[in-house]
Fold:
Amino acid sequence: MLLDMDETWEAGMAATVADRIRTRIERSHHERILGGWGARNPRHSRAPATHDIVLTSNDYLALADDPRIAVAVCRAALDRPPATGHRAERASADLEAALATHVHAQSAVLCQSGWEANVGLLQSIADPATPVYLDSRTHMSLRFGARAAGAPVYSFRHNVLDDLRALITAHGPGVIGVDAIDSTGGSHAALAALCTLAEESGGVLIVDESHALGVTGPRGAGVVVALGLTDRVAYRTASLAKAFARHAGVVFARDPDFAEYFQLEAAAAVFSSPVPHADIAALTATLAVIQESDSRRDRLREVGHRIRTALRTTGFELAGAAGHLVSLPTGPAPHAIAVRDHLEKLGVFGSLFWPPATPDDATLIRFSLHAALTDSQVDRILDACREVANTYGPIPPAIA
Structure:
């Protein structure tokens, strides 16, 4: 029998810290897996077979297996003596300079991950006297960074600038954080209006371009460059595990002195090992490939437009507009698992998302599309979705 900790104390049982931790684990299991999820852990599903279509990776341009990148990694691995010390620092600095030039920024600093980029940025620019205003759908790493800085955090409804304006009026100017492209629904932030609001209120704007860098803008430079806002956005961040298909992150700044400040002040920089030399070589090669990949970006847009148009015609209510992120709302957890299992039986694998990664306590299945999808594979995806619509309906049941 699962007891609340208060009940444990009232029963005269001296609960240890280990007892309390165990109670939390059991409560999570009973309330989420045995309760809302119908005894199914949503993380577990069948492994895809060779012929299945896997849409769970964020390798939007299908670059992970590009031979030009593989050659760069092999050369770095065979480098003798291995690049260490000043040689490794030089290679990292050269990549940072190339990335900054690519996105029209004054400085760039590499991090171990997109999470560390966001946490390190907020920790180094916010403080207890500086409020942080975050769109309700921004990545959780920004919230953790604000907490690390001891800053007060306020959430505003997704893309509702009147909410943000009211919060600023109540609490004063601060740091505003948004995702350029929402990772779940694929909606775009109103960046021009956000720049104006930040400027008028005396705040600064952070734009996380994780799902935009490499995919949008001239030569894949991102949304901020595409909209001509590079002089108005103070900071940009990105995970390089998306279109770059690597394990690293980056912070871009309008201030040319920011990178050195970050490296001295951000815990994510001070207390993390540098990005390994082989990864630096891979990222350097990937950047060059991305800059030459207009045809892949065109193909990705074509695939995304075709799939979105067909699914809307079928009756699915799709959020957002980003062609490479297509999310099917799936309602209550048991319904989501049933739809996911049905799609997998038909050979189409998407990513199942559930709270707190999704808004409004709902669930969704996200297809991360990529440029290597063939027309016949697109047909199979659409056929599978039509069968789901015929079996379960395109609109999921309401959450009780």
